[in-house]
Write a structure and sequence with these properties.
Blueprint (H helix, E strand, L loop, with lengths): L2 H5 L8 H9 L14 H23 L16 H8 L4 H18 L4 H28 L5 E2 L2 H12 L7 H20 L10 H7 L3 E2 L5 E3 L3 H13 L8 H25 L14 H9 L8 H18 L4 H11 L2 H22 L25 H28 L9
Parallel strand pairs: 1-3
Antiparallel strand pairs: 2-3
Helix pairs in contact: 2-14, 3-5, 3-13, 3-14, 3-15, 3-16, 5-10, 6-7, 6-15, 7-10, 8-10, 11-13, 14-16, 15-16
Length: about 425
């Protein structure tokens, strides 16, 4: 480690349990600027990557992917519902932690102008990736404009480049206003009445089709930008000394989850899909937590970030080998994300063809999200087996790239 870089970092940036695990493996992680990384954040990112792999493997492998919605309580079962629901944690956690990381860069002394330029260029780079390399990896077919989480993060970074000069409290207030008020504003606008502005509305406020190529926008940017602003506004918590940080994160998680339970119980504002009593207690619970992701509702943000903050507290208790495993993904999240798209698609096609299924099913794959009901694939036990296989195959490559990022300070690595 560069002694000058080590000396420039405040002690509270180093998480004691994570530092111990890192020393076990002789790993010391630095940011591009030479500041020590907070391993607990990378552990949570790594877990989210693992869950995201599950979601996309399920898309490719599960026989009922295009037959039923896993969160449709009239057709699903508890295991299928939770297989899908647990992956709801991925997008808001990624976006929230991106906001935290931006705050960390600002707090580490990065000049506002330089930070703004970096956010603008990296955001545009992510948008380009989404509509080229990532989109093709998911589809394996003619061009499709499918604006998913990488688009949402990239576009949110572009917007963050405009507000990073504001006080963190102002950004937090902006994020809270968006997360709380988005549903109200969206309910007042009929996209069909916007004429030439309809496409802009779909990209910014509500899901809808693209009017170029073929495609769909499930991740309109404004509500996700609100989540990123929350991460930036709460970023100060992650600068605190370890014990104070744990107390603060615990209080944040508890506040989010209590607000969710109270507001959801009222069954009023906060989610367009009210819950209801079902045929059994377990199905009633599933109805209660069955919140709307497209776009992310207030209830969705509260429950997913509340659970993620609890996971943040639990992950530093993992054994060192498990920490090393998750850190390999968490420190290379974008690289691993792009890699997993191609690997999951390839493995799914391989086992499908070996099992006698049609190879054409895995080509032009995103077009099937329009409602094709092929029923081609396997049941959940096979889905889980393929998921674990893909994760294990990803690990050595992600671990290698984590070493590259740790040992080199090339500027372009900050874009990966």
């Amino acid at each position: 480690m560069d002694p000058s870089a080590q000396a420039s970092v405040a002690p509270e940036f180093v998480d004691a349990p994570a530092r111990s695990a890192s020393s076990t493996t002789n790993q010391v992680a630095l940011t591009r600027a030479g500041a020590l990384r907070l391993d607990a954040i990378d552990l949570l990112r790594g877990l989210v990557i693992v869950l995201m792999v599950l979601d996309h493997v399920r898309d490719y492998v599960h026989a009922q992917t295009f037959v039923i919605s896993p969160t449709d309580l009239t057709q699903t079962n508890p295991l299928l519902f939770m297989t899908r629901w647990v992956t709801h944690l991925c997008a808001p956690t990624f976006v929230f932690l991106a906001g935290v990381s931006i705050f960390m860069q600002r707090a580490n002394g990065k000049e506002p102008g330089a930070l703004s330029r970096f956010l603008l260029t990296r955001g545009l780079w992510l948008i380009l990736l989404e509509f080229t390399l990532v989109g093709f990896g998911f589809n394996w077919g003619p061009p499709v404009a499918f604006a998913q989480v990488i688009w949402a993060i990239g576009a949110s970074m572009v917007l963050m480049s405009l507000v990073v000069r504001l006080p963190a409290s102002a950004v937090l207030g902006l994020g809270a206003a968006i997360v709380v008020g988005h549903q109200l504003v969206a309910s007042m606008i009929d996209a069909a009445q916007l004429g030439p502005w309809t496409q802009a509305w779909f990209f910014t406020m509500q899901p809808g089709p693209t009017l170029f190529l073929r495609g769909y926008i499930p991740y309109p940017v404004i509500p996700w930008f609100g989540v990123m602003c929350l991460g930036y506004g709460f970023g100060f918590i992650f600068r605190q000394a370890p014990e104070q940080r744990r107390r603060s994160v615990w209080m944040l998680a508890l506040s989010f989850l209590m607000a969710f339970v109270v507001l959801r119980a009222i069954n009023g504002y906060g989610d367009p899909a009210p819950w209801s009593v079902q045929s059994s207690p377990i199905m009633t619970v599933l109805s209660f937590i069955n919140v709307s992701k497209y776009p992310p509702s207030l209830m969705y943000v509260l429950v997913t970030l509340g659970v993620s903050m609890l996971l943040f507290l639990a992950l530093d208790k993992l054994a060192a080998p498990l920490q090393r495993f998750l850190l390999a993904f968490g420190r290379t999240s974008l690289f691993t994300y792009v890699l997993h798209v191609y690997l999951a698609h390839s493995v799914a096609m391989l086992i499908g063809v070996l099992g006698g299924l049609s190879a054409s099913y895995y080509l032009d794959f995103l077009a099937r999200f329009g409602g094709a009901t092929t029923g081609q694939g396997y049941e959940l036990p096979i889905v889980y087996g393929v998921w674990l296989a893909v994760v294990l195959m990803l690990y050595p490559i992600s671990s290698w790239f984590a070493r590259v990022k740790r040992e080199r300070r090339d500027w372009w690595l900050s874009y990966l």
